[in-house]
Protein backbone atom coordinates (compact mmCIF):
# COMPACT_ATOMS: atom_id res chain seq x y z
CA UNK A 1 0.00 0.00 0.00
CA UNK A 2 1.39 3.35 -0.99
CA UNK A 3 1.45 6.43 1.19
CA UNK A 4 -1.37 7.89 -0.89
CA UNK A 5 -3.48 4.81 -0.34
CA UNK A 6 -2.84 4.83 3.41
CA UNK A 7 -3.75 8.45 3.73
CA UNK A 8 -6.94 7.95 1.77
CA UNK A 9 -8.13 4.93 3.77
CA UNK A 10 -11.12 5.94 5.93
CA UNK A 11 -10.31 3.68 8.85
CA UNK A 12 -6.75 4.90 9.12
CA UNK A 13 -7.81 8.51 8.82
CA UNK A 14 -10.31 8.19 11.65
CA UNK A 15 -7.93 6.37 13.97
CA UNK A 16 -5.11 8.82 13.48
CA UNK A 17 -6.87 11.49 15.56
CA UNK A 18 -7.87 9.28 18.48
CA UNK A 19 -4.60 9.68 20.36
CA UNK A 20 -4.49 13.49 20.28
CA UNK A 21 -8.18 13.70 21.20
CA UNK A 22 -7.71 11.43 24.21
CA UNK A 23 -4.63 13.36 25.27
CA UNK A 24 -6.52 16.64 24.97
CA UNK A 25 -9.44 15.26 26.99
CA UNK A 26 -7.12 14.03 29.74
CA UNK A 27 -5.33 17.36 29.80
CA UNK A 28 -8.66 19.17 30.03
CA UNK A 29 -9.82 16.99 32.95
CA UNK A 30 -6.46 17.51 34.66
CA UNK A 31 -6.73 21.29 34.27
CA UNK A 32 -10.29 21.27 35.60
CA UNK A 33 -9.16 19.19 38.56
CA UNK A 34 -6.38 21.65 39.35
CA UNK A 35 -8.83 24.55 39.20
CA UNK A 36 -11.23 22.74 41.53
CA UNK A 37 -8.49 21.74 43.99
CA UNK A 38 -8.48 25.00 46.02
CA UNK A 39 -12.27 24.84 46.38
CA UNK A 40 -12.06 21.22 47.49
CA UNK A 41 -9.35 21.98 50.05
CA UNK A 42 -11.37 24.93 51.34
CA UNK A 43 -14.53 22.81 51.74
CA UNK A 44 -12.66 20.00 53.46
CA UNK A 45 -10.78 22.10 56.02
CA UNK A 46 -13.33 24.85 56.64
CA UNK A 47 -16.63 22.96 56.35
CA UNK A 48 -16.39 19.17 56.44
CA UNK A 49 -13.77 18.90 59.20
CA UNK A 50 -15.44 21.48 61.52
CA UNK A 51 -18.84 19.89 60.88
CA UNK A 52 -17.53 16.42 61.80
CA UNK A 53 -15.92 17.81 64.98
CA UNK A 54 -19.12 19.60 66.01
CA UNK A 55 -21.17 16.49 65.26
CA UNK A 56 -18.80 14.38 67.38
CA UNK A 57 -18.98 16.80 70.28
CA UNK A 58 -22.79 16.83 70.14
CA UNK A 59 -22.92 13.15 71.19
CA UNK A 60 -20.85 13.81 74.32
CA UNK A 61 -21.58 15.56 77.59
CA UNK A 62 -20.09 17.93 80.18
CA UNK A 63 -18.83 15.70 82.99
CA UNK A 64 -17.74 18.45 85.38
CA UNK A 65 -17.61 22.19 85.88
CA UNK A 66 -14.05 22.57 84.64
CA UNK A 67 -14.32 20.27 81.58
CA UNK A 68 -15.81 21.62 78.37
CA UNK A 69 -16.79 18.25 76.90
CA UNK A 70 -16.24 14.51 77.06
CA UNK A 71 -17.07 11.75 74.59
CA UNK A 72 -16.40 8.85 76.96
CA UNK A 73 -20.14 8.12 76.90
CA UNK A 74 -22.01 8.75 73.66
CA UNK A 75 -25.70 9.64 73.81
CA UNK A 76 -28.42 11.84 72.33
CA UNK A 77 -29.03 13.54 75.65
CA UNK A 78 -27.67 16.90 74.52
CA UNK A 79 -30.13 17.00 71.64
CA UNK A 80 -33.00 16.33 74.02
CA UNK A 81 -31.65 19.04 76.32
CA UNK A 82 -31.33 21.48 73.42
CA UNK A 83 -34.93 20.93 72.29
CA UNK A 84 -36.33 23.00 75.14
CA UNK A 85 -39.24 25.48 74.99
CA UNK A 86 -36.73 28.34 75.23
CA UNK A 87 -34.91 27.02 72.16
CA UNK A 88 -38.13 26.80 70.14
CA UNK A 89 -39.19 30.31 71.19
CA UNK A 90 -35.79 31.71 70.28
CA UNK A 91 -35.76 29.81 67.00
CA UNK A 92 -39.19 31.20 66.08
CA UNK A 93 -37.92 34.72 66.82
CA UNK A 94 -34.78 34.04 64.79
CA UNK A 95 -36.78 32.74 61.83
CA UNK A 96 -39.05 35.78 61.99
CA UNK A 97 -36.13 38.23 62.06
CA UNK A 98 -34.27 36.37 59.30
CA UNK A 99 -37.29 36.06 57.00
CA UNK A 100 -38.43 39.65 57.46
CA UNK A 101 -34.86 40.96 57.19
CA UNK A 102 -34.30 39.02 53.97
CA UNK A 103 -37.56 40.32 52.50
CA UNK A 104 -36.70 43.91 53.44
CA UNK A 105 -33.25 43.51 51.86
CA UNK A 106 -34.93 42.29 48.66
CA UNK A 107 -37.41 45.18 48.60
CA UNK A 108 -34.63 47.72 49.13
CA UNK A 109 -31.91 45.99 47.13
CA UNK A 110 -33.86 45.31 43.93
CA UNK A 111 -34.54 48.98 43.05
CA UNK A 112 -30.93 49.88 43.87
CA UNK A 113 -29.55 47.03 41.75
CA UNK A 114 -31.97 47.86 38.91
CA UNK A 115 -30.92 51.51 38.96
CA UNK A 116 -27.24 50.55 38.95
CA UNK A 117 -27.54 47.98 36.15
CA UNK A 118 -30.13 49.59 33.87
CA UNK A 119 -30.40 53.31 34.53
CA UNK A 120 -26.87 54.26 35.58
CA UNK A 121 -24.24 55.05 32.98
CA UNK A 122 -21.68 52.21 32.61
CA UNK A 123 -18.79 54.52 33.47
CA UNK A 124 -20.31 55.16 36.92
CA UNK A 125 -21.33 51.57 37.70
CA UNK A 126 -17.92 50.72 39.14
CA UNK A 127 -18.17 53.69 41.49
CA UNK A 128 -21.65 52.61 42.57
CA UNK A 129 -20.41 49.08 43.29
CA UNK A 130 -17.57 50.53 45.34
CA UNK A 131 -20.04 52.57 47.40
CA UNK A 132 -22.14 49.46 48.01
CA UNK A 133 -19.05 47.62 49.28
CA UNK A 134 -17.75 50.50 51.44
CA UNK A 135 -19.34 49.10 54.65
CA UNK A 136 -17.35 45.89 54.18
CA UNK A 137 -14.11 47.81 54.45
CA UNK A 138 -14.70 47.89 58.21
CA UNK A 139 -15.17 45.10 60.71
CA UNK A 140 -18.64 43.58 61.15
CA UNK A 141 -18.58 44.23 64.89
CA UNK A 142 -17.44 47.84 64.44
CA UNK A 143 -20.31 48.53 62.04
CA UNK A 144 -22.81 47.08 64.48
CA UNK A 145 -21.41 49.06 67.41
CA UNK A 146 -21.84 52.16 65.26
CA UNK A 147 -25.58 51.51 65.23
CA UNK A 148 -25.49 50.92 68.99
CA UNK A 149 -24.10 54.43 69.43
CA UNK A 150 -26.63 55.86 66.96
CA UNK A 151 -29.61 54.28 68.73
CA UNK A 152 -28.47 54.89 72.32
CA UNK A 153 -30.39 57.30 74.63
CA UNK A 154 -27.42 59.71 74.42
CA UNK A 155 -27.40 59.84 70.61
CA UNK A 156 -28.28 62.70 68.28
CA UNK A 157 -31.60 61.05 67.42
CA UNK A 158 -32.56 60.89 71.09
CA UNK A 159 -31.62 64.57 71.56
CA UNK A 160 -33.80 65.57 68.61
CA UNK A 161 -36.71 63.53 69.97
CA UNK A 162 -36.41 65.15 73.41
CA UNK A 163 -36.16 68.65 71.92
CA UNK A 164 -39.34 68.02 69.92
CA UNK A 165 -41.16 66.98 73.07
CA UNK A 166 -41.46 63.27 72.32
CA UNK A 167 -39.28 62.17 75.22
CA UNK A 168 -36.44 59.67 75.03
CA UNK A 169 -37.25 56.95 72.48
CA UNK A 170 -36.50 53.33 73.34
CA UNK A 171 -34.64 52.37 70.19
CA UNK A 172 -31.79 50.27 71.52
CA UNK A 173 -32.15 46.69 72.79
CA UNK A 174 -35.35 46.02 70.86
CA UNK A 175 -36.27 43.65 68.06
CA UNK A 176 -36.60 46.68 65.79
CA UNK A 177 -32.98 47.60 66.44
CA UNK A 178 -31.92 44.06 65.52
CA UNK A 179 -33.99 44.26 62.35
CA UNK A 180 -32.36 47.54 61.39
CA UNK A 181 -28.90 46.14 62.11
CA UNK A 182 -29.31 42.98 60.04
CA UNK A 183 -30.73 44.89 57.07
CA UNK A 184 -27.79 47.29 57.17
CA UNK A 185 -25.20 44.52 57.54
CA UNK A 186 -26.57 42.14 54.89
CA UNK A 187 -28.06 44.48 52.27
CA UNK A 188 -24.89 44.45 50.06
CA UNK A 189 -25.13 40.66 49.85
CA UNK A 190 -28.54 41.12 48.24
CA UNK A 191 -27.57 43.96 45.91
CA UNK A 192 -24.52 42.29 44.34
CA UNK A 193 -26.17 39.14 42.86
CA UNK A 194 -29.17 41.18 41.76
CA UNK A 195 -26.88 43.63 40.01
CA UNK A 196 -25.00 40.81 38.24
CA UNK A 197 -28.26 39.24 37.01
CA UNK A 198 -29.71 42.55 35.83
CA UNK A 199 -26.47 43.74 34.27
CA UNK A 200 -26.23 40.58 32.14
CA UNK A 201 -29.82 41.00 30.97
CA UNK A 202 -30.25 41.86 27.29
CA UNK A 203 -31.83 45.31 27.51
CA UNK A 204 -33.05 45.00 23.94
CA UNK A 205 -35.74 42.67 25.26
CA UNK A 206 -37.28 45.57 27.18
CA UNK A 207 -37.20 47.70 24.04
CA UNK A 208 -38.85 44.88 22.10
CA UNK A 209 -41.58 44.56 24.74
CA UNK A 210 -42.31 48.28 24.42
CA UNK A 211 -42.47 47.98 20.65
CA UNK A 212 -45.02 45.19 21.09
CA UNK A 213 -47.23 47.42 23.22
CA UNK A 214 -46.17 46.51 26.77
CA UNK A 215 -46.12 49.33 29.30
CA UNK A 216 -43.37 49.80 31.87
CA UNK A 217 -45.03 47.58 34.48
CA UNK A 218 -45.73 44.76 32.03
CA UNK A 219 -42.16 44.90 30.75
CA UNK A 220 -40.87 44.74 34.32
CA UNK A 221 -43.17 41.85 35.25
CA UNK A 222 -42.83 39.79 32.08
CA UNK A 223 -39.20 40.50 31.13
CA UNK A 224 -37.12 41.87 34.00
CA UNK A 225 -38.39 39.73 36.89
CA UNK A 226 -38.10 36.34 35.10
CA UNK A 227 -34.57 37.17 33.95
CA UNK A 228 -33.63 38.35 37.45
CA UNK A 229 -34.89 35.20 39.21
CA UNK A 230 -31.40 33.60 39.47
CA UNK A 231 -30.07 36.77 41.10
CA UNK A 232 -33.07 36.93 43.42
CA UNK A 233 -32.56 33.33 44.51
CA UNK A 234 -28.83 33.84 45.08
CA UNK A 235 -29.45 37.03 47.05
CA UNK A 236 -32.08 35.41 49.25
CA UNK A 237 -29.71 32.55 50.12
CA UNK A 238 -26.71 34.82 50.70
CA UNK A 239 -28.73 36.91 53.15
CA UNK A 240 -30.94 34.33 54.86
CA UNK A 241 -28.38 31.62 55.66
CA UNK A 242 -25.77 33.77 57.50
CA UNK A 243 -28.51 35.87 59.09
CA UNK A 244 -29.99 32.78 60.77
CA UNK A 245 -26.67 32.15 62.53
CA UNK A 246 -25.84 35.78 63.33
CA UNK A 247 -25.10 36.38 67.01
CA UNK A 248 -23.15 39.66 66.91
CA UNK A 249 -26.05 41.87 65.80
CA UNK A 250 -28.56 40.64 68.41
CA UNK A 251 -25.89 40.69 71.13
CA UNK A 252 -25.01 44.33 70.43
CA UNK A 253 -28.42 45.74 69.49
CA UNK A 254 -31.07 43.34 70.79
CA UNK A 255 -30.44 42.45 74.39
CA UNK A 256 -33.02 40.04 75.80
CA UNK A 257 -35.80 41.33 73.52
CA UNK A 258 -33.99 40.48 70.31
CA UNK A 259 -32.05 37.36 71.21
CA UNK A 260 -31.45 34.78 68.46
CA UNK A 261 -30.34 31.15 68.30
CA UNK A 262 -26.80 32.15 67.38
CA UNK A 263 -26.48 33.82 70.77
CA UNK A 264 -27.58 30.63 72.55
CA UNK A 265 -24.97 28.60 70.68
CA UNK A 266 -22.22 31.15 71.31
CA UNK A 267 -23.08 31.39 75.02
CA UNK A 268 -22.69 27.62 75.45
CA UNK A 269 -19.18 27.75 73.98
CA UNK A 270 -17.98 31.04 75.47
CA UNK A 271 -19.81 31.43 78.80
CA UNK A 272 -21.24 28.11 79.97
CA UNK A 273 -18.29 26.16 78.52
CA UNK A 274 -20.70 23.37 77.59
CA UNK A 275 -19.39 22.45 74.19
CA UNK A 276 -21.55 19.32 73.89
CA UNK A 277 -24.81 21.25 74.33
CA UNK A 278 -23.57 24.07 72.12
CA UNK A 279 -22.65 21.56 69.41
CA UNK A 280 -26.08 19.94 69.61
CA UNK A 281 -27.72 23.37 69.25
CA UNK A 282 -25.47 24.16 66.29
CA UNK A 283 -26.38 20.89 64.55
CA UNK A 284 -30.09 21.52 65.12
CA UNK A 285 -29.72 25.05 63.77
CA UNK A 286 -27.94 23.77 60.65
CA UNK A 287 -30.62 21.14 60.05
CA UNK A 288 -33.35 23.74 60.49
CA UNK A 289 -31.64 26.11 58.04
CA UNK A 290 -31.22 23.26 55.55
CA UNK A 291 -34.92 22.39 55.83
CA UNK A 292 -35.95 26.01 55.30
CA UNK A 293 -33.62 26.33 52.31
CA UNK A 294 -35.03 23.14 50.74
CA UNK A 295 -38.60 24.38 51.20
CA UNK A 296 -37.57 27.75 49.78
CA UNK A 297 -35.94 26.08 46.76
CA UNK A 298 -39.10 24.08 46.07
CA UNK A 299 -41.29 27.18 46.36
CA UNK A 300 -38.91 29.16 44.16
CA UNK A 301 -38.94 26.38 41.55
CA UNK A 302 -42.74 26.28 41.57
CA UNK A 303 -42.91 30.07 41.20
CA UNK A 304 -40.56 29.90 38.22
CA UNK A 305 -42.67 27.16 36.60
CA UNK A 306 -45.87 29.15 37.19
CA UNK A 307 -44.34 32.30 35.69
CA UNK A 308 -43.11 30.33 32.67
CA UNK A 309 -46.52 28.72 32.18
CA UNK A 310 -48.34 32.05 32.49
CA UNK A 311 -45.98 33.62 29.96
CA UNK A 312 -46.59 30.78 27.50
CA UNK A 313 -50.36 31.20 27.88
CA UNK A 314 -50.02 34.94 27.34
CA UNK A 315 -47.92 34.39 24.21
CA UNK A 316 -50.52 31.99 22.81
CA UNK A 317 -53.34 34.43 23.60
CA UNK A 318 -51.43 37.26 21.91
CA UNK A 319 -50.80 35.07 18.87
CA UNK A 320 -54.49 34.13 18.64
CA UNK A 321 -55.48 37.77 18.98
CA UNK A 322 -53.09 38.79 16.23
CA UNK A 323 -54.37 36.03 13.94
CA UNK A 324 -57.98 37.07 14.55
UniProtKB/TrEMBL annotation:
**Which stretches are transmembrane?**
32-57, 95-115, 127-151, 171-198, 219-241, 275-300
* Sections of the chain in a coiled coil: none
Show where the ABC transmembrane type-1 domain sits: 91-296
Gene Ontology cellular component annotations, sorted alphabetically: plasma membrane
Q: What is its main location?
A: membrane
Cite the entry's keywords alphabetically. Answer: Cell membrane, Membrane, Transmembrane, Transmembrane helix, Transport
Looking up InterPro entries in the UniProt record yields: MetI-like, MetI-like_sf
List the SUPFAM superfamilies hit by this protein, alphabetically: MetI-like (SSF161098)
Compartments, as annotated in UniProt: Cell membrane
Q: How does it sit in the membrane?
A: Multi-pass membrane protein
Q: Which Gene3D superfamilies match?
A: MetI-like
Q: Where is this region: Disordered?
A: 1-21
One of the Pfam families matching this protein, by short name: BPD_transp_1
Q: Which GO terms describe its biological process?
A: transmembrane transport
Name the family the entry cites.
Belongs to the binding-protein-dependent transport system permease family. CysTW subfamily.
Q: Which PANTHER family match?
A: INNER MEMBRANE ABC TRANSPORTER PERMEASE PROTEIN YDCU-RELATED, INNER MEMBRANE ABC TRANSPORTER PERMEASE PROTEIN YDCU-RELATED-RELATED
Q: What is this protein called?
A: ABC transporter permease
